[in-house]
Please model this.
Amino acid sequence: MKHEKVIVLDFGGQYNQLIARRVRECNVYCEIYSYKKDIEQIKAMNPKGIILTGGPNSCYEEGAPTCDKSLFELGVPVLGICYGAQLMMHVLGGKVEKAPVREYGKTEVIVDKTDSLLFRGISPKTICWMSHFDYVSTIAAEFEITAHTADCPVAAAENASAGLYAVQYHPEVLHSVEGSKMLSNFLYNVCGCTGDWRMDSFVENSIKAIREKVGDGKVLCALSGGVDSSVAAVMLSKAVGNQLTCVFVDHGLLRKNEGDEVEAVFGEAGEYDLNFIRVNAQERFYERLAGVEEPEAKRKIIGEEFIRVFEEEAKKIGAVDFLVQGTIYPDIVESGVGGESVVIKSHHNVGGLPSVVSFKEIIEPLRDLFKDEVRRAGLELGIPGHLVFRQPFPGPGLGVRIVGEVTEEKVKIVQDADAIYREEIVKAGLSGEIGQYFAALTNMKSVGCMGDERTYDYAVALRAVTTVDFMTAEAARVPWEVLEKVMNRIVNEVEHVNRVLYDVTSKPPGTIEFE
Ligand code: XMP
Model:
């Protein structure tokens, strides 16, 4: 099915994905492209609207990212945000200069044109997020100023008859109190969108499309139990039933009881129509990890061994027609295909599989979705909430939460400590506020006393971070009483732990995981 589409042109701003997510939250489908995208290709996509993102440059400087004037003459409404707004003015003949005062943070914006389509239903004074050092000193011809702030004469401007809108602030960030409403106004009042991007119809249409594509072919899926692969697997199962085989490799580095939980949902006792193969490869992984301390070496071993185990299973199954991958939209944008901001993470997930399995085609049913959309699709598919709202968990699992050598004994310690920690965080009602939290095992042993006895045992570190995008993070302020309770339970209930530390490091300079 063809959706109405809005295009987000990325000028390198940090909020590019956020803009796209906000647009989709308004039930309008959108895609991110580099600002260099060919204008003919943009035209061919027949967009309902175009949004220009922010960016770190000054548009009047030589070599700064720019766009052609013809972009504004397509007859397609354009909303320029921050750099995008300045660029619109600059390209259309206005003037952009260095501002006498840099505006940063929550700022009161005074709406001058309260009947603007963009400001329908918006308060005459509204708090918006500003972050700019340049400003529009002269607007382009045929534009009018529609909002200002104490320091910024042009907080918003428009040429309504041409469908061109410019805002200096960032409507996409939550600090802009009525920002979502303004985006929605642009999409519905200016672009005339109808809001046809909905998860229920996406799921239904995807299932139909997969069924047609697969026919009576065989499909193979590497299931980790994580959100993406679970949602992909269930979608495939609903489409083609037991033509699908899911291979779940238990590498012995999962959280406590996790292997059994995944099996309970997807295995024979579960409700899905698919072939489920659990490979208990714990011993193999422990053997290969014995004596290895260096973090990258550990990651590499786990990744390689995973592929090897999977390959052996795939060989038993024989040739398949399709291989399922749980790629999601941020993976595509971050690999540089979509937007402008290139962030490449070399995380081990299932990326190496295509080379070891013989198949005709890859199916990526989630490649258009953001993470929150994947979760919504999961709920539509009836997947249990505890799977859909799982925290991120690294592919190499507890292997990167045990500092130094991984042994079966250490895995057990960190599993038990982690289970206690997670249980108490949930009990305290904090799980929704914390982006990611887990226990890690430091490689440190220290002296303690238990009863009258001297102990010499491990220290467990508790980690909890708040984060928007997992690229940066801050240590969460978990209440002291909760930490104290967790500490008490861990030292009492988990053998070989006599010390509990709380990690207050932010990222950067730390990372979220320990290795
Ligand atoms: P770091 O430790 O780099 O982690 O601050 C950032 C986020 O990425 C997750 N992470 C991984 N996810 N495979 C994954 O799928 C990996 O190898 C991996 N390593 C780290 C981490 O849990 C955090 O959410």
Q: What stands out?
A: Residues 5-190 form a domain with the Rossmann fold fold (CATH 3.40.50.880). The first strand starts at residue 5 and ends at 10. The CA atoms of residues 347 and 395 lie 8 Å apart.
